[in-house]
Write a structure and sequence with these properties.
It is a single chain. The protein is mostly helical. The protein is built from seven helices and no strands. The radius of gyration is 19 Å and the shape is globular. The longest helix has 32 residues.
C-alpha cells in the first residue's frame, strides 16, 4: 500500500508541476514583455526538466508535509479543473444559444483556460494547513485508491461505450457528457474509498 501511495504521489506531483509551468510561463512572458513566437516551444523543451524537478520537489515535500496534503490537494485540484471547465462549457453553450453575438470576457477565458492549472499546486499548500488543524476526517489511502479506481473505471467505461457505438475516434478528447461521467465516477469512488478505509481501520483496531 505504501508503495502505491508513493508512486501516485510522485505521479500527481509531476503532472501538477507540469500543468503549473504553463500559466507561470505566460505570467513571466507578460511581465517580462517577451513576445517571442517560439516561447511556447521553449516551454515544451523544458517539460522533461520540469517533470524531473517535480520528483525532487516531491521528495522534499514528503519529508516536510507528508503525502496526505499532496495527494488530497492534487487529486481535488485535477478534479476541480475539469468541473470548472465543464460548467464553463455548459454556460458558454447556453449563452451562445440565447445570443449568437456573445463574446466571452478575455479575463474569464484566460483564467479558465490557463490559470486554473495552478489549482493543484495551490491546493497542496492549502491542504497542508487544513490537515494541520483537522486531520482525522479523511482516510488518505482509501481516498487515493477510490479516486484511482473511479477515474480508471469511468474512463474505460466511456471508451467502451464509444467502442460499442463506433465512435472511438480519440482516447483523450471527451465531450461534456463523457467528462461528467468521469468527474462523477471519480468523486463517488473517492468518497466510498475513504469511508471503506475508515471502516477497515476500525476493524483492525478492534482486533
Amino acid at each position: 500500500m505504501k508503495l502505491f501511495l508513493y508512486v501516485i504521489t510522485y505521479l500527481v506531483t509531476a503532472i501538477a508541476t507540469l500543468l503549473a509551468s504553463f500559466p507561470l510561463a505566460v505570467i513571466y512572458q507578460n511581465v517580462s514583455g517577451n513576445d517571442d513566437a517560439y516561447f511556447g516551444l521553449y516551454i515544451l523543451y523544458l517539460s522533461p526538466i520540469t517533470v524531473i524537478s517535480s520528483f525532487i520537489i516531491c521528495y522534499f515535500l514528503i519529508k516536510k508535509i507528508t503525502i496526505k496534503p499532496i495527494l488530497f490537494g492534487t487529486i481535488i485540484g485535477f478534479w476541480l479543473i475539469k468541473v470548472i471547465q465543464v460548467i464553463n462549457s455548459l454556460y458558454i453553450s447556453y449563452l451562445y444559444k440565447s445570443n449568437k453575438d456573445y463574446i466571452q470576457n478575455i479575463f474569464i477565458r484566460d483564467t479558465i483556460d490557463l490559470y486554473i492549472l495552478l489549482l493543484p499546486i495551490v491546493l497542496v499548500f492549502l491542504s497542508h494547513f487544513l490537515f494541520k488543524k483537522y486531520n482525522n476526517w479523511l482516510h488518505i489511502s482509501g481516498f487515493t485508491y477510490g479516486a484511482t479506481i473511479g477515474f480508471v473505471t469511468s474512463y474505460v467505461m466511456v471508451l467502451f461505450i464509444r467502442f460499442l457505438t463506433n465512435s472511438l475516434t480519440s482516447y483523450f478528447h471527451f465531450d461534456t457528457n463523457e467528462l461528467m461521467v468521469v468527474i462523477v465516477g471519480t468523486a463517488i469512488f473517492s468518497i466510498l474509498g475513504s469511508i471503506i478505509g475508515f471502516k477497515k481501520s476500525k476493524q483492525i483496531q478492534k482486533k
